[in-house]
Amino acid sequence: MLAHSPEPFIGVSMQYRIGVFGGLNTELTDKEGLLNLGLKDMYVALEWVQDNIAAFGGDPDDVTIMGLSAAAHGIGHLIMDINQPKRLFHKAIMDSGAHTARATHLPSSALNTQHFRELLDLTPCAHFVDLLDPEILTCLRGLPSEVVDAAGKQVFERSNPSVRWAWQPVLDGEIISRRPLDAWKSGKWQKVPILTGSAHNEGSFYVPTSANSSGDFSDFFHTLLPHLSPGDFSELEALYPDPASDPDSPYVEKSGKREIGAQFRRMEAAYGHYAYTCPVRQTAIWATSHSDSDPPVFLYHWALNKTALFGANHGDQMRYQTYNKEVREISPAQDEVAGKFHAYCVSFITKGDPNSMRAGKFAERPEWAKWSGQKGMTMLLGEGNDERAGGTGIGVAAVLKYYNWAEKECDFWWRMSAKWED
């Protein structure tokens, strides 16, 4: 990404703790001051940049934070943090992720207590009864990290997929002092320009390809969202027409591949909208709905098909965004998609606007209008290109459109989002 930017900038890669190591959020860790360690790691890295980047020729007053998926969720929480005394970043790129996509509980919630108990029961620390005993942490620290990691992953998988995922950020009164939707509604957050977007088939990586019956679809979403009402589920079923009973459903499986179940397309669409597409679009709407003077948001939709099975999948855009050799050398069309997306992003990083930098091989590219309120313009990237999926279409590298794809579905998921909070 750096090497091909017409304007120089400095890249700093940060590591932060994930899973049980970054999110062991319980009443005990609250008492010990150990909540949301993964988010705190992000802050430590940003503080390092503030203290040291000038020595490398960088500007501590012009920092862009960038992350994909869970990292984008984390960035969303940092944007909402109004307790940070000093501005540590000034622009944000959030790829396929938003902090409103996951439930945010109190550390003392029954769910977090349950996950903590399950974790201990999978380790040699299972003998502790009082979950507020500080010796529990001494016991866990004395174990090999592999043991704790394996136990944490097992607890996570028991609730995957679900709004009951383990090791998620919690309300800590510090970084996360408000629930995500309440924070947006307040109009108070770190006001920075945002470039964000999601892929067309975000759910294909996460749902079972073997999903075959209407019952498989229903069971999946009852497990995912057990607190929704029967009426909510009826609305969900209607929004995503069942290919088993509706031959005109857009989710009819046409590949002929035996390993692909009849409900896979339907399930991946619904899950992708719920977990990624609609929360990302929600960021664009909320961040621009309070005042015309708020910083701009630029929204994209990644549409380039990588495979016939998974389509434009979660995270596929990353290698294009960084102008990676793996994709730019596939074909001239792939190079153009990668080059234009990369040019937009490095212009945003260096200038705060994806349009400002007009130099280099991809100086000529469509103007990317900022999002505005409830219905804005979206930059479609790679629309109609299916070369990598075995097709011949090269499509259009970048085109700005009013794009109302999944509009009704997102209206539904946004109404449901308030129910994820509790």
TrEMBL record:
Origin, by domain of life?
A: Eukaryota
The record's listing under InterPro entries reads:
AB_hydrolase_fold, CarbesteraseB, Type-B_Carboxylest/Lipase
Carboxylesterase type B domain boundaries? 10-386
Q: Protein name, please?
A: Putative extracellular lipase protein
Write down a Pfam family by its short name.
Answer: COesterase
